[in-house]
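hey m, so remember when u said the tokens were messed up on ur end? i reran from scratch. heres the input so u can diff it against urs
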Amino acid sequence: MYFGQLYFPLIAFIALAIPSHAKTIFVDDNASAGRDGTSWASAHKYLQDALAGAEYGDEIWVAEGTYKPDQGAGKTQGDRASPFVLVNGVGMYGGFLGTENSRNPQGDNNQTILSGEIDSNSSLWSLHVVSGGSLSNFTRLEGFRITGGRA
């Protein structure tokens, strides 16, 4: 009896801390805008849209392509102060072809680009391409080439 009373709060805390709602969010720059990101067939077009809906324990799988931080819902095109902000506890993985069903990208990591070059004539650059603070050890950023930041 005493054992159960002593450890029940600890077990309850651990159970609540483990994310049971973790999901995979898909992103492909060849997709149409306005999709929900629940599969490759309905992938988000913009990485910012996936980051906006990501929660601790989720994974974001990103297909080969070029992604700019000033693109997506709620973003202003040409906003130099809008980086990709990492979400605590979210794994972000690049290098996918856009057909995989396990976290084993079959593409080339160098072809999933987070680019701070936010205009087409190379005259406007993001101050920071990626940022993050107070992130746990469960936060991941793998399989990307980050280019074009000009602080």
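this time it looks ok to me. The longest helix spans residues 2-17. if urs says something different then somethings off w ur setup not the seq
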